[in-house]
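Fold this complex.
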Amino acid sequence: MNVDGKHYRTIWLEAPDCVRIIDQALLPHRFGFMDLRTPDEMGAAIRNMNLRGAGLIGCAAGWGVYLAVRRHADAPDFAERIAADSAALLATRPTARNLAWALERMHEALAGGAPQDRIETARREAQAITDEDAEFSRRMGQHGLELIRGIAKRKNGAPVNVLTHCNAGWLAFVDHGTALAPVYAAFDAGIPVHVWIDETRPRNQGASLTAWELGHHGVPHTLIPDNTGGHLMQHGLVDVVFVGSDRTTAAGDVANKIGTYLKALAAHDNGVPFYAVLPFSTIDWTIADGVRDIVIEERGSEEVRFMTGWDDATNRLATVRICPEKTPAANYGFDVTPARLVAGIITERGIAPASREGLRALYADLHP
Ligand code: MRU
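Structure:
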């Protein structure tokens, strides 16, 4: 997507020994980059959320393996070293399925190849994962566009109000995004759209990333406190909810940023269609019951107890505590929305009912 007229992806190979990312920890206050040269640096960038979002985490894991292969290409215990670096990458964030998926794909590509080809094989596969991610996001945008077009028709050209949670825009992937891809496609097609953005406590990805993205693209939007969605839906101010997903089960249960489930409940109660937008790489075919079996990341309590933002008075970032000094806090990163609350799953192949049969039918060639 474009930033000040220049096209960017969120991750790319800057030089043979250097993967460059947009440093999302700086946004929305500064637009800057981070250079990563070792698998450890890549792991730290994922863990510290300099990059985040399911699709981008997967691509980063692919590039992390590439950096590991460069480092160990000639080692006699090559396989063990790659396995150790991969295990470290896998441990960085437990919920996003794309991370394990990309590691598996890199290992398959490397298996059995000649030692002298290892680096090039790893580079090609990481690049393929990255290019595919961008293309799949573009396709999800086209499928979701038709839904928005239908709503716009029914509204006789009045703006279509979309509500989204967290950031499943291009910053969470390589380009276009998932939940926001249909919004960008609709806006670019001249359909009037407006987005309600949940701020998404505790890390505020909605306020800092989604608002930044949509603003740069010129899409009308309004930031709302996380608890506002139900009220808006009761008053007919939301036409559709689009969210991303970090892991979706074979039966269509959707894990996404904490708070998504409450939006789905409110949408269900008010007859507002709630869609999850995700690529194949987010689906975990091994899990049937998402609430029971999806591992939910728990992060440090300081993310809840403190807030960081720009202090206009001193012109710098400031972190402040928002509770009594000794108040304990819990920080679950994600929750699971059961399939029964999901109107459909928008994928790169089309829109499926949120059910085992729906997803299987779409991916019958891959999961007969
Ligand atoms: O913790 P994050 O920022 O990596 O969480 C990812 C998300 O932004 C959301 O859960 C998103 O809606 C799905 S990832 C595309």
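The chain is about 40% helix and 20% strand.
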